[in-house]
Amino acid sequence: MKIKPEQINESIRDAHVIIVPSIVDNMPYVVMEAMSIGKIVLASIQGGQREMIEDGVSGFLFDHNEPASFGEQLKKILSLNNESLQRISINACQRVHDDYSFEKVMQEKRSFLEQIIKDKQTTNQFPFLHQQEIKPNAKTSSAPGLLSVVVPFYNMGKYIEECVESVNKSTYKDIELLIINDGSTDSNSIEKLRLLSSQKNITVIDQPNKGLAKTRNYGAAIAKGTYLSFLDADDKVAATYFEKAIHALIRNDNVFFVGSWVQYFENSQALWPTFTPQPPYALVHNPINSSGLVYKRNAFLAGGLNDEKVDYGLEDYESVIQMLHNGFNGVVLPEVLFYYRVRTGSMIRNISNQKLLYSNKYITEKYSAYYTKFAVQIINLLNANGPGHLYDNPTFEINVSIKPAFENMLFFKLKNFVKKNDRLKRIALTLKKN
Questions:
Q1: Is-above-0.70 flag for pTM?
Q2: What are φ and ψ of residue 202, in 5° steps?
Q3: Are 213 and 306 in contact (CB under 8 A)?
Q4: Which of 31, 305, 309, 371, CA to CA, is 20 to 30 A from 420?
């Protein structure tokens, strides 16, 4: 039976002993809540919660490896006089207060964070788990402090004004906005670009249709900024995104690109809390919004140019793998600073399974030595989670199965139906037991 937090005291008020027998689940909150109101707890030493209990002093422990120990400990508790019960009850409350109170935990967290900040001020290095040898940066001239925002554009007149407006609202003001018109054919889109080109910080460049990879690479090459960002014409950024990203790039010598959490909009309202890309996980599935990153431009030119051989949805993922392979690691800011439009007809929504398989095969073969370095960890990930190309958003629940989809759905519906019917539930549990 589920108990709401405000019902805990009332529900266990008359309990003589709280038994936590699990050898699988760690239940520290259950133990902590019971001890905090002075209840006697009997828990398994095989569970993580055992660290909270000093046997015979603030509670009791038994050992699943010694079958008789549970009965012995329970008998000991039931034989205690009121004075002993009161003493253990007081000790239990005191243990929770001394070691697990908000003030105690906050103090330890503060000390830990202050030490990290102190160490950080002397190193200027982000503590990556894996760091390849850093490839020399490209030697190009750039305007100090300038951010070049490159917007590849193809018939996106319906959305471009929202995109540009979000850039113009940025708290980081030293920006040049390059819109690369990749051979648009829609008259409304062309007219929108003509009007935008009159803004002083916007440069519109027309070219024959060359595809997303070549357009991004061209924009990076002609950009004048020390920093570089790509922004699809139908997406938006938060006002503080560029400022916070560039701050991270300046503060960390070994950070070469920055992303953030992503809020979907239009056809989806889901949140994507992206992750700092590191092997082995990044080699199985892309954990970052790779189409909307902020770079140290020379690092991107030296080791992150888009590969047109996967130019139908995975060119930006390939770029992230290339950056990591060349030692140009990046980080994610853990807050929503990017807005990704989920719309019908977008390129990534229409990519076929065959193209996904080809692209992943191409990327792994291109960086085979890098993948080989993490082969054991990659195989363990795949065994546990299934093939990465099947994930849409890695933060969504994934259920990998070799059974046909309709069989899984039928089983899921049947299971839920049984759970909601007490009589069927008892029958199912009896069958399972037998």
A1: no
A2: -110, 130
A3: yes
A4: 31
Write down which residue in 46, 71, 103 finishes a domain.
103
- Domain final position from 370, 393, 412: 370
Domain that holds residue 45: 5-103
Tokens representing 287 are 């954990």
CB hemisphere CA count around 367 (13 angstroms): 25
| Same domain for 148 and 72 | no
CATH number of 288's domain: 3.90.550.10
pLDDT in tens, 251-310: 999 999 999 999 999 988 999 999 999 999 999 999 999 999 999 999 999 999 999 999
